[in-house]
Design goal:
alpha/beta; binds zinc ion; 461 residues; binds manganese (II) ion; Aminopeptidase; 2 domains; Leucine Aminopeptidase, subunit E, domain 1; binds ligand BES; 19 strands; 16 helices
């Protein structure tokens, strides 16, 4: 079900947003009954607190939403969004005149809080609807929400229904919606077309590996998105322990996120040329599985010694990035659930990113703060290049030592992008470990909204 605003012409209940500082003045203007009701219900305007206020017939006259303190709002993004989940059935409108960026955060948070993953079990339907607040671009927010829904649905769908074949179907469906051109290279054809590592990583699965390629738009700057599409990551022969394998349906989170971002770009009809590349594989085990100490020759010609078959993401991305790099691009962006080390470093909330371009980094950091899609720059630290050089081959896919795992993975990827200087890589998590405002537990997009907001500066749109 699409996440949408209510029609503007229906009756609606006013929502008042009150900071803790606003409380006294607001109470002074209320009648005795309302003051008593607010007091008895313990409403103190804490961020996310909410209270419906009845009229004399027991209907809802208005709703007050706690906006807490500046500090609380800095800490908690989309802090008002739980209202969308908890308010009684009905249509509401924002009565308080917030600054435009806060209105947009409120409205988008409301939409995203209505997300349900209801393909396998019925879920409660969102009951509270919001009219689009004046002064925000409602259409843009609905498009952003739709992109995020696509990302979440793709991640949440288990590998039994979201293997490389199903990811291809979803990819072609997305392209079809927007009239984009596609090309898919599958199975043995990957060898004929020189994608040897995509084939090697994916060949042990019952679902053939494939490379998904989409092109859309014929003018303006060229943006190439590359997403890790590992539909399930067992770790391969260096098999993961149960606890590490538990969440690995989400290992196509990079693919899901670039598809969500591609939806936003195409639905908004941005004046750019978009390309999306996804190596879609399952890192599985059978007699044909690639092995530790195998040396693989990549599309680009660089040889890679496999020192851990669980470092498969950088492998499939290597061929896809090399392919992307064969054409001039104003920006190549990769997104991948690439390393556990990124999670150890920054936790589940922040998306670390890497780029050699200070302007891109600055635009992105600012956009991320504006749209509350937090990202954090980590360095392509040149001195660590030697960690990914095993001697026996050009590159080592899994350096020993355990230092700087997210950085060495990023450096590995950068070796495959040598012709286009504007390269941006995200090491995302793609998963919300426990429910937060606007982000129920499960698959979640990271970085896509920040990139969308930063694109005009990043590529001079
Ligand atoms: N998909 C994993 C990374 C991952 C694990 C992301 C957990 C998010 C949560 C990736 O393929 C992987 O297994 N990476 C290894 C690399 C190592 C073997 C060099 C890792 O990070 O442990
Ligand atoms: Mn792995
Ligand atoms: Zn993986």
């Amino acid at each position: 079900m699409p996440l949408a605003f209510a029609a503007s012409d229906v009756d609606s209940v006013p929502l008042y947003v009150l900071t803790q500082g606003d409380m006294h003045a607001w109470l002074d203007h209320q009648d005795d009954v309302t003051r008593a009701w607010v007091g008895r219900n313990g409403f103190k305007a804490g961020l996310g607190q909410q209270l419906a206020i009845p009229d004399k017939d027991g209907a809802i006259k208005s709703v007050i939403l706690g906006y807490g303190t500046d500090d609380a709002r800095r800490r908690v993004r989309f802090g008002l969004a739980d209202a969308a989940k908890q308010l009684p059935k009905g249509v509401y409108h924002l009565e308080t005149d917030l600054p435009d960026d806060e209105k947009a955060e409120f409205a988008l948070g409301w939409l995203l809080a209505q997300y349900r993953f209801a393909y396998y079990a019925k879920q409660d339907e969102p009951a509270a609807q919001l009219k689009p607040p004046a002064g925000i671009d409602a259409n843009r927010l609905e498009i952003i929400a739709a992109g995020e829904v696509l990302t979440r649905d793709l991640i949440n769908t288990p590998a039994s229904d979201m293997g490389p074949d199903a990811l291809e179907v979803a990819f072609l469906d997305l392209a079809g919606q927007h009239g984009a051109d596609t090309r898919v290279i599958t199975g043995e054809d990957l060898l004929l077309q020189n994608f040897p590592i995509v084939h090697a990583v994916g060949r042990a699965s019952a679902k053939a590996p494939r490379l998904l390629d989409m092109r859309w738009g014929d003018q303006g700057p060229k943006v190439t998105l590359v997403g890790k599409g590992v539909c399930f990551d067992t770790g391969g022969l260096n098999i993961k322990p149960a606890s590490s394998m538990a969440l690995m349906k989400k290992d196509m989170g990079g693919a899901a996120t670039v598809m969500g971002l591609a939806h936003m770009i195409m639905a908004l009809d941005l004046p750019l040329q978009l390309r999306v590349l996804i190596p879609a594989v399952e890192n599985a085990i059978d007699g044909s599985a690639f092995r530790p100490q195998d040396i693989l020759t990549s599309r680009k010609g660089l040889t890679v010694e496999i020192n851990n078959t669980d470092a498969e993401g950088r492998l499939v991305l290597a061929d896809a990035l090399a392919y992307a790099d064969e054409e001039p691009s104003d920006c190549i962006i990769s997104m991948a659930t690439l390393t556990g080390a990124a999670r150890v470093a920054v936790g589940p909330d922040l998306a670390p990113f890497y780029t050699d371009q200070p302007d891109i980094a600055a635009a992105l950091a600012q956009a991320a703060a504006t749209v509350r899609d937090p990202v954090w720059q980590l360095p392509f630290w040149d001195a660590y290049e030697k960690m990914i050089e095993p001697g026996i081959a050009d590159l080592d896919n899994a350096p020993s030592g355990g230092f700087a795992g997210s950085i060495t993975a990023a450096l590995f990827l950068r070796r495959f992008v040598t012709e286009n200087p504007n390269y941006l890589h995200f090491d995302i998590y793609g998963w919300q470990p426990s429910s937060a405002p606007a982000r129920p537990k499960g698959g979640v997009g990271q970085g896509a909204r920040a990139v969308l907001e930063a694109l005009p500066q990043m590529v001079n749109l």
